[in-house]
Amino acid sequence: MRRAERYAAGLVRLSVGHRGLVCLLWLAVLLAGGLASAANLGRLDQSFTASGQDGSRANAAITERYGAGAGVAPLVAVVTWPDGTDARSPGTVGRLRSGLAGATDPGTRVLSYAGTGDGAFLSQDGRTTYALVYPHSGKPDLAGLTAVRDATERLRTGLRAALPDARVNVTGVLPLQEDSATTRPGLGLQLAKYGCALGALVLLLRRFRPLLSLLPLLLAAVSSVAALVVVLALACAMELSFVVVYLIPVAALALSLRRSAGLVTAWRAELARGRDARRAALRAGSLLAGPAATGTSAGAVALASLALFPAPFLRSIGIAGATACLTTGLAALTLGPALLSWLPGRVRERSGAGSRRMGQLPLAEGALRTTGGVRRASRPLAVATLVALALLTGAAGFLTAGNPRAEALVRGGPGRDGLDQLTAAGMPTGVLNPLEVLAPSAAGPGRLAAMAARIPGVLTAVAPGDAAWRRDGSALVAVIPSGEPMTAPGRRAMAEVRAATAGTGARVGGSGVPELDLVRGVYRLVPLALAVMALLGFAVIARLRSARAAVRAVLCGVVSALAVSGLLVLVWQYGPGARLLGGVAATGAVTGWIPLVAGALAFLLALDLAVPGGSAPRGRAGVGLAGALPLLAIGLGPQVELAILVTALGGAVLLGPALLRALSVLPGRSRPGPHERAAKSPASALPATPASSYWSRPRSPLGHTIPLAEPSDHAQ
């Protein structure tokens, strides 16, 4: 047995021997850590962008100096005048100007036809106009979003009161997202959500039985809290993204389900052999120690390597994934056996003939057949699965990372009414995401605006002379593109504006620029990051198991990580499944940070599952479904970005097991390596473990040393 596995088995022995203390320690972590985590979530960066890049630095400088705009998209007030009204007449312009002034806080930056006289703010028939309003939101965090929500309501109410004869609506990226968050799902989608929740409950109860079904949930809870505490402590010294709040619980739940399945299966096998609960828990934990140590070590090392890349976003994902992997492994090897050892010693689970057959097998062989063996599926099904995964992997190459199209965010609501009013008048949706150029006053803001306005894909560029747009020797230039940031014209316009202002001392910001930075500053590192993760995962598993096992694990990890992105492309970006999952239409893009988080999760879970003699029943898809269905029950619905997230995370949980099951039934399966053969040796053929090999031993009620089921190469 390798040193890491000996330490893991010793940790199991120590935990069962001091089970009361172990349970109290984890309870303290759950309670105290939960309170501390909830109080310190504000330390995390809530912008979901590639911080440290040019766009993020420009937005931070604009927010610090002007207190509005930058990373928060402006509100777009849309006004349609009655027939016969001349929007260019001085009276109409004056009414619009006074209405905007009365509906906004003093000092709010506003761009409209009334302030600029620019025809780009009018429709071709001259009846519809729009105004860009930058509320005092500060940073794009929860407080900033609350400020935008209040400003939206004030702007809508104030303009409608000031212009009673006009049709007035307020739209924008944030109002559209607010509508999607408050829209109730339809009856069919609600039934689907309830079905997912009920299916997860049924699978959990069927796999673990009522009382033991609490074990994976408890392990997931304590390991999630412990990981969050560690991450928040590290956030005091470095910048970490809020995405860890999504990654950590899902990773902990998926890993806890697998570890608990293997632990409970082995524990039941020992009970069927006539062992008491304490001895059964000790032997089951010792059987779990090897695979858990290998999977935890490989996953933690692979994910931790992301922290070495010069991208804070990747660092956040790597630290969160590695921490969740370690805390889940620690909880499974300590709290799991400790809790099982408290249960009545002669409990007989109703597992039917399976339990009776398991009781006739040696412990290691019976448990490994249940937890590590694979149910033989038909070869045509396996081939179909591999073909589907190959298509998903290929589809990943068509991924467009960026915010979804505005028209795909919500089906109805006040924000959607404003968007429909805007597009019906012939206005491009690119006005929802204007660029902001922060330039020194000496650089000539008017000259920069004229230069930007000539760039293809730019609707207009304005350099207002108001005090709200000039401050401390700097000036802001608003550049309004015709295309949204995720479209090819929109991205070209952003890139060309940056190129045109290079060398002038100006910096280009705006709500869509960080997404471009995320693609160029983070996605370009993804191939190298994936290669490094694969290399380190291979090295750890090859060292602890075998080279064949390492190749299988790395292959599953890489394919699963890419296939998740392909799943998002086919379901959401091109839209065949968008309507079924609660969306309106094809999104045209996938929220940039979601494929990175889901890909890292898929790689971690696949790497852990592919470890020989792994800790989950590979042949039973119910364990993976029990982790994916709750996500779908929570996230399916009209909130498109949340639905995209749960689709990605659910796919990350399921694709790895599907690939491994398909590979297992193909011809030419490799013979087990020496460690796998040793792990399948009957427990009766194994010597008792020397007392000097482990940290401590619980006292047996019979007063003698408890022999463990361990690989025969342990005696060295």
Structural commentary:
This protein is α+β, with helices and mostly antiparallel strands and 716 residues long. It is 58% helix and 6% strand. It contains 25 helices and nine strands. It has helices at residues 3-17, 19-39, 54-66, 90-102, 113-116, 142-162, 173-182, 187-212, 214-234, 244-272, 277-304, 312-340, 352-359, 363-371, 379-395, 414-424, 445-453, 488-501, 513-521, 526-544, 547-573, 593-609, 622-635, 640-664, 674-679, and strands at 75-80, 109-111, 128-134, 167-171, 435-440, 458-462, 470-471, 474-481, 507-510. The strands form two sheets. Strands 5, 6, 7, 8 and 9 form a five-stranded antiparallel sheet that branches. Strand 7 (470-471) and strand 8 form a beta hairpin. Helix 4 packs across helix 6, helix 21 runs antiparallel to helix 22 (593-609) and helix 23 packs antiparallel against helix 24. The radius of gyration is 29 Å and the shape is elongated. Residues 346-377, 614-620 and 669-716 have low confidence and may be disordered.
SS element count, helices: 25
Q: How much of the residues is beta strand, in percent?
A: 5-15%
Residue share in helix: 55-70%
Compute the average pLDDT: 82
Alpha-carbon distance between the two ends: 9 Å
Content-based structural category: alpha+beta
Largest sheet: 5 strands, antiparallel
Based on DSSP secondary structure assignment, what is the total number of beta strands? Answer: 9
What is the rounded Rg?
29 Å
Question: Which of globular, elongated, flat, extended, rod-shaped describes the shape?
Answer: elongated
- pLDDT < 50 runs, ≥5 residues: 346-377, 614-620, 669-716
